[in-house]
Structures are given as C-alpha cells and as structure tokens.
Amino acid sequence: xxxxxxxxxxxxxxxxxxxxxxxxxxxxxxxxxxxxxxxxxxxxxxxxxxxxxxxxxxxxxxxxxxxxxxxxxxxxxxxxxxxxxxxxxxxxxxxxxxxxxxxxxxxxxxxxxxxxxxxxxxxxxxxxxxxxxxxxxxxxxxxxxxxxxxxxxxxxxxxxxxxxxxxxxxxxxxxxxxxxxxxxxxxxxxxxxxxxxxxxxxxxxxxxxxxxxxxxxxxxxxxxxxxxxxxxxxxxxxxxxxxxxxxxxxxxxxxxxxxxxxxxxxxxxxxxxxxxxxxxxxxxxxxxxxxxxxxxxxxxxxxxxxxxxxxxxxxxx
Length: 317
Fold this sequence. Notes:
Elements: H1 9-19, H2 36-50, H3 55-88, H4 97-192, E1 199-209, E2 212-218, H5 221-229, E3 239-246, H6 258-261, E4 269-276, H7 277-289, E5 307-312
Parallel strand pairs: 1-3
Antiparallel strand pairs: 1-2, 3-4, 4-5
C-alpha cells in the first residue's frame, strides 16, 4: 500500500500559483492582466447611471460593479482555458478527464459569478424602481400642489370676478334708481305745474252781454272730472286751480260777497281759487244741476285746504 504524501509548503505555494495564473478563481479586486483604473471607470459609470442618493444605495451599485468585474474575469478565464486546451489538442475527443474537469470547474465559477451578477442587477433594478417611484411620488405631489394652487387661484379669480360683477351691478342699479328717481321727480314737478301737488288749471272767463253774463269753462268740467277720476295717471290730480277772468268787471251773477260786488265796475278783474279734488267735484256737481251755466261760489264747499287769491288789474288807458 502506497503511503500518502502530505503536501509541503513549497508544493502548496506552487498550487496556489497555478490557481491564480489566469485569475479565474481569485477574489482579489485586481489580478495580473487587470488595471485598477478600468474598475474605477466601471464603478464611476455605474454611479453616473444609477445616481444613488443614499449610502446603502451606493453599496448596491458597488456590489454590482464587483459582480460585473468578477463575471468578466470568469469569462476571460474560461476563454483562456478553452483556448489553451484547443491549442494543446484540437480534438476534444482526445482530451483527458483532467481537461474536462478543469473546464467544469471554470464553468462552475462562471455560473456562480453570473448568479451573483443577476442578484446584484436585480437589487439595482429594485433600487432604480424605488428611485423612480420616489420621483413619481414627488412629481405627483408637485402636480397635486400645482393643481391645488391653480384651483385656489381660479376660485380666488372667480370670487374677484363675482365681487366685481356684484359691484358693477350695484352701481348700475344705483344709477338706474337715481335716474328713475330723478325722472319721477321731474314728472312730479311737471304734474304739479309749479304747485305743491299735481294740479290742473281751469280758466273761467265771464263776459257781460245785453242778455246777461256768459261763462266759458276751459277746459270744461266734464273733461276735468274725467282727469280727476282717472286712475291711469302716474301722479293723480289732487287740486284744481280756477282762474276767473272778468274782462268787463264782475257781473251781478257773480256778486258772491261784498268783495266781488266791489269789483263790479272795474274794467278788468282776475280771481284765483285753488280747490282740493273733493271740493271741486262738489262744486262741479252743483254747477251741473244749475241751468244758468255759471260757476258757483263754492264757499259752502270750502275747507281748510282750499285757498282763494284775488288779483286786480286796473284798466289801461
């Protein structure tokens, strides 16, 4: 029975050198044939691509850089081993078992590196998804705040427009009311005919003739009665102003009192009476019953609101 020989320190050193000749199984960051600046460029490019914002995210990028670096190393090792085997024996059918065993080990290392690469890439995908989700959340929040601000501005603008419209309508309404009030006052003044209340003037001319006095009403009582009783006027008539004119002096038919009789010989005499609506209607009713066609004195109908004003004009030579 052949005794088993333990490896010496020198043989261990040679075995280690054989294992790291192509660097395919080494866990060192930089082995023979590699440059540190190449790894730095790889890592820097990944940082620029993924833009990690936290230390843990930066570690994920660094893990991916190592996984990528080691996978490239395993691929180079596999290619180098296959190239050496084909150089030694182009026909794989003539390869010894050790050659296949060597390829299997290299493939296993590559498979492990590929799985590590996939895990690191998966972690980076999650990182990128999380960053994108964070960006989307931030954008959604910004959009929400923007819409909220726009809605508030729109509501404020609508409120301002409403207030302006209300103020405009109020001004227009006030102006319209002022114009209506001014027109109503003008119409009322016109209806009053320079009197305090709406008044109609009735001219009564009394002429003397050989057959007695002749009285002319302008307008006639019938017309004034219709005006007084009309309910279509904006300002109903409240008074009637009778202006008596006696061109030839006051005839005997109109000697209602001593004052009128004293005017009998005056060549011209004018008498004015301002009568309330009710007083005038009573007088007109009495005049309708009379057959002489003259005006009545109306003294028995007068009340505190009625006025009498005598005006005398002396004859002109």
